[in-house]
Amino acid sequence: MINGAKLIDSKFYVAGVDDKQGKSFGTQGPDLAKTMVGVDRNKYIVLMAHNPTYFKTAASFDVDLMLSGHTHAGQIPPIDLLVPIIYKHGYGLYKNGKGIGYTSSGTGSWGPPMRFLNSSEIVKFTFKE
């Protein structure tokens, strides 16, 4: 779902925004305001946003958990040293008020099809009522 949200079992929302590069590939690009139209902010909201730069904006929409990727945690040296300089939330778990975010290094690669001194990951979240 691009720039939209779905209520799951009347308990929480899963929302998703397009990537910043979406317009280059024929999609609409990110629109968090459109995504959140009709979302009950009193319910738990999980936002899928490829790029972690949306975290501050997501907090202003009462998003409880934002899941991102994009950075690959640097993938290969020396890019891994640049990620924390370029991205405030380039890898790992972080908080902003009541909101939590996680940027994963992912399982794939970008550019050169390799990883060096950097690991892939699959992250598992467990939600409890």
Tell me what you see in this structure.
It contains 3 helices and 6 strands, in the order ββαβαβαββ. It is an alpha/beta fold. The protein has a domain at 86-108 and 119-129. Strands 1-2-3-4-6-5 form a 6-stranded mixed beta sheet. β1 and β2 (12-17) form a beta hairpin. The mean pLDDT is 88.
By secondary-structure content and strand pairing, the structural class works out as alpha/beta
Q: SSE string, helix = H, strand = E?
A: EEHEHEHEE
Major sheet details:
6 strands, mixed
Mean pLDDT: 88
Radius of gyration (Å): 15 Å
Number of helices: 3
How helical, in percent, are the residues? 10-25%
Strand content: 15-25%
Work out the number of β strands: 6
Strand order of the largest sheet: 1-2-3-4-6-5
Give the CA-CA distance, first to last residue.
25 Å
- Write down the overall geometry: globular
